[in-house]
Amino acid sequence: MVITVEQVRSLTRTLPRTSEHLIRDQVKFRVGSIVYVAFSRDETVMGFAFPKEERAALIESEPEKFHLPRESDMRFNWVHAWTAALDEPEMRELVMDAWRMVVPKKVATARLGTP
Question: What Pfam families is this protein classified in (predicted)?
């Protein structure tokens, strides 16, 4: 099953402070000016906020699913996933974790409960 922008949009609509933007033909979801999920133009890749220090382990664990962003984005807390390789529960977890990284802790706790 391929994860779609619409599935992610349905989830992000429930997340406080999220806004959706179309930037250079790419759908991006952000809190303030910080992007936490973005899709490639052809929607085959979903990029998402992810701790830099854990990125290598994630990619090594499932290289057919996850890969590094382009070199210019390596300075950010960011990873890419093939949308065709993700299932909905995994997408939900990745998006929620990415959102949690960019909102104040009190906002995340109000939405998700105690971490």
Answer: YjbR
